[in-house]
Amino acid sequence: MEKMVHTILEEQKGDRIDKVISTLDEEWSRTQVQQWIKEGNILVNGQKIKTNYKCSLNDHIEINIPDPEVLDVIPEEMDLTIYFEDKDVLVVNKPRGMVVHPAPGHLTGTLVNGLMAHCKDLSGINGVLRPGIVHRIDKDTSGLLMVAKNDMAHEKLVNQLVEKTVTRKYRAIVHGVIQHEFGTIDAPLGRDTKDRQSMAVVDKGKHAVTHFHVIERFKDFTYVECQLETGRTHQIRVHMKYIGYPLAGDPKYGPRKTLDLNGQALHAGVLGFKHPRTNEYLEFEAPLPSEFVQLLEQLRK
Q1: pTM
Q2: CATH of the domain at 143
Q3: Same domain, yes or no, for 80 and 24?
Q4: Dihedral sign for Cα atoms in the order 33, 37, 40, 46
Q5: Catalytic center residues
Q6: Per-residue pLDDT tens over the stretch 106-159
Q7: Do 158 and 134 contact (CB within 8 A), yes or no?
Q8: Beta bridge partners of 7
Q9: Which run of H or of E encompasses 241?
Q10: What residue numbers bound the domain in which 100 lies?
Q11: Could you tell me which residues are beta bridge partners of residue 183?
Q12: Is 176 exposed, middle or buried (0-12, 13-18, 19+ CB in 10 A)?
């Protein structure tokens, strides 16, 4: 365990302890500092304090930095398609059929296993089984994900998601022919009261907004682009079903008679965000996977 001491200066007097400490090292996020305080790893004048403690002039701060937790996720060599990487952020194109992170009883073959083999430094905010994961896409959805390589990057990327400043555009094929060119679905999402494994539009659900526009129409299907304003679980899949145009191939929310795809026709094609350190806006685009392109060609025939 590493140790650091700090004496509160005039300009820090009256500030919250977690705010002050998170400014001492750019790699320390406020969330992480608050965890250290709760664990008793930060003492003020030799005493344990709460996260909302207000600093006084000349307070003696002792910071005991815990050793990083050893992850019990097995690194696995994988052929990952990485679009961008530096010391803070990594952008990866997740293939269809791959789960993002391990879960109890399912510890191998996930994107996180591959990331662990690719780089040893991933943020620890989400704990042992989800290092670096800022947002997720479903197993059978392909496309772009941003991954945080340290806690500072993680916190800033999550803040952008909360503030709705991240660009996330998806391509999808839905049942039915949508007549209008553009639409916005503003309907709250939560657990389905009849099926806890599924999401649904529910009165007391979380605020959820999806924008869409039509790219191409076919005899019985429509090819659309959806842009997320919020990022709820299964949001596009549930919202498109709600307005009567469920995703083709969707085993959970689609009709029984659908295209044989082994999963929904959904691809996270565009991802844009501000770099957590430089504040520069970065945007990436991943082409449609081959099976999605083939499906479009079949529908055109």
Answers
A1: 0.76
A2: 3.30.2350.10
A3: no
A4: positive
A5: 138
A6: 678 889 889 888 887 787 666 555 677 888 899 999 999 999 998 899 999 999
A7: yes
A8: 60
A9: helix 235-242
A10: 69-163
A11: 212
A12: middle
